Amino acid sequence: MHKILINCIFKVYRFITYAFFHKDLNALLCNIFILWHFGSGLERSIGTVKHLYLTTMFTILSGLLYLLLNLVLFGPGKVEDVSGLTSVTFAMMGLSTARTRMRRSLFFGINIPTAFVPWVLLFAAFVIPGASFMVCIGGIIVGQAYGLGLCLFPELSEPKASALDKKLIFWLLKKLPGGTYIPGSLLERRAAQAQSTPPPPGSYPTQNYAFCPIPVAQHQYPNTQAYDTW
Fold first, then answer.
1. How many domains are contained in the chain?
2. Burial class (CB in 10 A: 0-12, 13-18, 19+), 221
């Protein structure tokens, strides 16, 4: 037990770096796809800075919870090394299902509570290369606890996220070609969304003429009545 505590103290950096190591290329590609699928919507709603902050916090807390669960259930001799981003993916699923307004979901034709969806998807931990079942459980617990308001770490406020947007490292992220940077300010996100949303028909000046009624000459159709509006 003392050896494990000493290793944790001197290798505390591994609570972050384990998520970026993958056993092979298939595991890396699989984790990137899953994280992009479940994390892109969350990033659009909270911004890139807070998304990176939550990714870091979910990585650390999922690793700590994994270590505690293994020590309690299996003892100090059964702790195995883990790697991959599956803990972050399941934590984001837990967060999304805890804060959604949709209380029930259809899962393969079965109507179940939305909060149970990440737990049902735990079987994917046996399919994803390099994934650990216990670290996925830790990710779900951390994500749902944060989503229910049980803040396990300091909250990153919107003003702080907006201030970090102006720092050099995030300024460089904005300049990356082919990438999409989501600002931390809610007003800036709404403005960017309004610019990307196509305007409704008739909003262009050239289209207004198409929706204006053409006055009909009374002498051409003597039995008709002219209308100023539709």
1. 1
2. exposed
